[in-house]
Amino acid sequence: MKLKSVEKVAGWEYLSRYDVKYETPSGGEKVYEMFSRDPDITTPEKLLHPRTDAVMIIMTDRARERLLLIREFRLELGREICGLPAGLIDPGETVEEAARRELKEETGLDLVEITHELPPAYSAVGLSNEQCICVFGVAEGEIAPCKETGEEITARWYTKAELRDMLRRGETFGSWAQAYGFMWSVGL
């Protein structure tokens, strides 16, 4: 495949929509629709070098006996979904600063230790070029309701047995939370 051009179709506060024109191996031309957090993609080269936009926060208690999950009402689904705390990295913010801020905003908890930080990974391949960094660690404190306007989030600690039961019942999860929750709950 050969990228030919990138055209911004629409732009909003947090997302922009682009048409990416490319040539197929057989010489045909196609248009791929995508979204990006980057409001200023003007060339195929810039498309290939996305920035890291978000942080995903994977926290346990100190004893590693409970995993922190959130339940968040998602407008695009019309219901609550189980997920991991996450959010956008503000301009000038480090990954750690963003993780601390988002964890506090969404759960009321304090990030007390980062044990691992993975390199950037794509959040929604096939739809977007957004990259996210996963931060693993330990959180403590009292869970508090989310105070962010426009977000309906409640947080809770889950044991491995509770998580296995939720997965067995078919609880609605985001894919990252479901995959990590399964692996954590069965000891992989």
UniProtKB/TrEMBL annotation:
Alphabetized PROSITE patterns for the sequence: NUDIX, NUDIX_BOX
Molecular function terms from GO: pyrophosphatase activity
Keyword Hydrolase attached: yes
Top-level taxonomic group: Bacteria
Gene3D superfamilies recorded: Nucleoside Triphosphate Pyrophosphohydrolase (3.90.79.10)
Keywords, in A-Z order: Hydrolase
Single GO biological process annotation from the record: ribose phosphate metabolic process
Cited InterPro entries: Nudix_hydrolase (IPR020476), NUDIX_hydrolase-like_dom_sf (IPR015797), NUDIX_hydrolase_CS (IPR020084), NUDIX_hydrolase_dom (IPR000086)
Domain Nudix hydrolase: 50-180
Cofactor(s) needed: Mg(2+)
Record family assignment: Belongs to the Nudix hydrolase family.
PANTHER family recorded: NUDIX HYDROLASE DOMAIN-CONTAINING PROTEIN (PTHR11839:SF18), UDP/ADP-SUGAR PYROPHOSPHATASE (PTHR11839)
Name of the featured protein: NUDIX hydrolase
